[in-house]
Design goal:
8% helix
Length: 92
């Protein structure tokens, strides 16, 4: 069974990424444990029996280096880390 990307009330991680123009681009977000993680959201057609062909989000974790996150999930520990333009802001 697939895990959902929502752990808090409100829009899911992929929905917020889409609203901020970050679909198909790696972005940083803070997970429910307070760790900075790197992920990518895309859209695809659903393969479910109840809603075949419906457009759904596909969430994938990336290696932290993809988003410029250093050891321990801290962007400050990576030299030449990219700017915060690919940081997902969590506003509810």
């Amino acid at each position: 069974m697939a895990r959902r990307c929502t752990t808090v009330p409100g829009f899911g991680t992929c929905c917020r990424a889409a609203q901020q123009g970050l679909l198909n681009k790696p972005f940083q977000f803070t997970d429910s444990r307070g760790n900075v993680r790197c992920a990518t959201c895309a859209t695809r057609s659903s393969t479910s029996r109840s809603h075949p062909g419906r457009t759904v989000f596909q969430f994938r974790f990336n290696k932290n280096e993809t988003c410029g996150i250093g050891p321990g999930g801290c962007p400050a520990l990576t030299q030449n880390a990219p700017g915060s333009s690919n940081t997902l802001t969590l506003s509810q």
